[in-house]
Amino acid sequence: MRNIIRASFAKRPAILGSLRNGFVAHVRTPPSSPFRTLFTRTSAALQHEERIGALECGLDERSDEVLKTKHRGLSVIHDPSLNRGSGFSVDERERLLLRGLVPPRRQALEQQIERVMSTYERQRTDLDKFQFMSMLMDRNTVLFYRILMDNFEKLAPIVYTPVVGEACQKFHAIYRRTRGMYFSIEDRAHFRTMVYNWPVDDVDVIVVTDGSRVLALGDLGCNSMNIPIGKLSLYVSGAGISPTNTLPVVLDVGTDNEELRDHPLYLGLPRKRLRGDEYISLIDDWISAVRHRWPNALIQFEDFSSDVAATLLKRYRHKHAPVFNDDIQSTGCIAVASVLSSLRARGLEPSDIAHEKIVCAGAGSAGLGVCEAIAQAIEAEGQALEDAYNRFYIVDENGLLGTGTHSKNESPTRRKFRRSDLPAGLSLKEVIEKVKPTVLLGLSGRGGLFTKDVIKEMAKHVDVPVIFPMSNPSTASECTAEQAFDWTSGRALFASGSPFGNVTMPNGVVKYSNQANNVYSFPGLGLAVTALRISCVTDLMFLAAARTIATLLPDEDVQKGLLFPGVNKLRNVSVEVAASVAQVAIDQGLTGNVLPDSALKSREGLTDFLREQMWEPKYGHIVAG
Ligand SMILES: NC(=O)c1ccc[n+]([C@@H]2O[C@H](COP(=O)([O-])OP(=O)(O)OC[C@H]3O[C@@H](n4cnc5c(N)ncnc54)[C@H](O)[C@@H]3O)[C@@H](O)[C@H]2O)c1
Ligand SMILES: O=C(O)C[C@H](O)C(=O)O
Ligand SMILES: [Mg+2]
């Protein structure tokens, strides 16, 4: 078995010990680090490697990462974390017994990128592009991330929403090669041992789904694996989490999607979904096993259906911390950021959030999570929480949540948002007529729900209608950017869950389409949790992150209708999010790692420290072990 460790300067004694024991080490250090000197003094091979690298006309800028491996020959090429295709140096070819196994001419990363991108452009459909990128990820980690990061705006919609949705729907048909781990009902007795089948001891982030509500595409069972894989690729590209230290997981508890279950190529257990106490107890077993093996890893619950999402979060957020639910908490974070930023765009103050009248379509875990997070942001501006709840009007598939009859099992969160001043069951349009909202949120998963009537009604009562259809994928968006701008004569502020292009109005003015997606929040959180070893994820961390995201753009951009930086700036956003989360963790005494003084002295010191921890997609040094 090949063992891999990633470590920073602080962990150097452990690294040196492990190297002697034949582990592979990924060592990240700032260029000036004394560890670099220490290491080069202990490794003649590495010194030689650096000299050879320089002689080869500086083909690539090397990272400080050091990979030590026992693999030789084809097994190096078949390991994506070691493989560098035509980019192996002369020395690596010699040391790793690659002579003759790769074409003779060494090429730089830039040339590899050129070749890959020209093949990418020849892919016909978005799904072909998704598959092409998946295969690249399986082949060469550095090249995959370098290409993803350099072309983020173009490729994020392929590896993430919306195309990842289609890739999940067709997973059973396009499956090629395994990635991540599957824990099924049938493995239950083995959870404690099977976690050791995963070769990496140092897992930083786990994204887990049971596939019960994939985007707005419903129950996709075991087909959902592309969601954790996609989310983790954003942790890596967007916040520099080391790819080796991420683990995508699917819990196969069956599926109630009959079409899929009966399909001969379906790869999950062909049985009905486990529910109730048995389901909860299985998840209990899984999380205990995971915690036993990886006590500090951040666990992100993703796309669990609303009947269990909040229950699981409550059950584990303290007992098995650090844990969070992406659809509830980090969607809440980006929604708060979007509203705060829209206040700036309207020339208002953050405290004016307390005067918003918010209509939200959708009362699932995302809708309620978003409204709860905005209520907390209002409370943080000095309002009573009760008054904060009073600013919301939530409409679900049965109309306005009012005080009519409702189930005894209703969640306390949902109950808090019931209105007593309007009849239960009013339609979305009726609610808008009566309430005259300033903000309209869409978390219903119902494409086209914001009809022309609905948007025109809203636009009658406010100068700047704030319209955020946040459902994913694009087909589930409550309206498109074009519709929102067209039906409001360009007055809307617009943000959607999946990306839409900007819209040019008939008079030639460009209207900006923002992406209000939790991608702005979870990668930075992961960076902070990993770098500081944060022991628990708190609501205050998300609020701090939201406030930061809302202030990243200069006034002149916000006045144009841009609410936050584009996704191509995600690494910069993530560092700022991480710094805000880190500061809350420091203040709340939730950090396990001792930080250098410089990181504690100033915000700049903290962001510098966090930036230094980020993995970069560059070829490092491979040392034969
Ligand atoms: N932008 C983001 O970052 C982000 C993050 C998480 C979730 N989401 C999206 O939010 C959506 C909802 O997620 P969820 O987990 O809450 O799903 P869910 O299925 O549990 O909830 C959907 C809610 O919409 C309501 N609804 C259905 N039809 C409606 C209608 N005609 N009018 C009003 N309400 C209606 C349902 O009653 C339910 O309350 C999904 O599309 C998901 O992709 C977006
Ligand atoms: O995955 C996304 O794009 C956002 C979100 O987590 C969702 O479930 O829709
Ligand atoms: Mg999700």
UniProtKB/TrEMBL annotation:
Q: Indicate which residues the UniProt annotation says bind (S)-malate.
A: R213, N472, N517
Query: A cellular component term (GO) from this record?
Result: mitochondrion
SMART domains per record: malic, Malic_M
Q: Which gene encodes it?
A: me
Keywords from the UniProt entry: Metal-binding, Oxidoreductase
- What is the name of this protein? Malic enzyme
- GO biological process, any: malate metabolic process
Q: Which GO terms describe its molecular function?
A: malate dehydrogenase (decarboxylating) (NAD+) activity; metal ion binding; NAD binding
Q: Spell out the catalytic residues.
A: Y160 (proton donor), K231 (proton acceptor)
Matching entries from Pfam families are given as: malic, Malic_M
Cofactor stoichiometry and binding? Divalent metal cations. Prefers magnesium or manganese.
Does the entry feature the keyword Zinc-finger, yes or no? no
Domain of life, per UniProt, equals Eukaryota
Which PROSITE patterns does the record associate with it? MALIC_ENZYMES
Q: Which SUPFAM superfamilies match?
A: Aminoacid dehydrogenase-like, N-terminal domain, NAD(P)-binding Rossmann-fold domains
Q: Which family does it belong to?
A: Belongs to the malic enzymes family.
Quick one: which residues bind a divalent metal cation? E302, D303, D327
Q: Where does the record place the Malic enzyme NAD-binding domain?
A: 328-586
Q: Which cofactor does it need?
A: Mn(2+); Mg(2+)
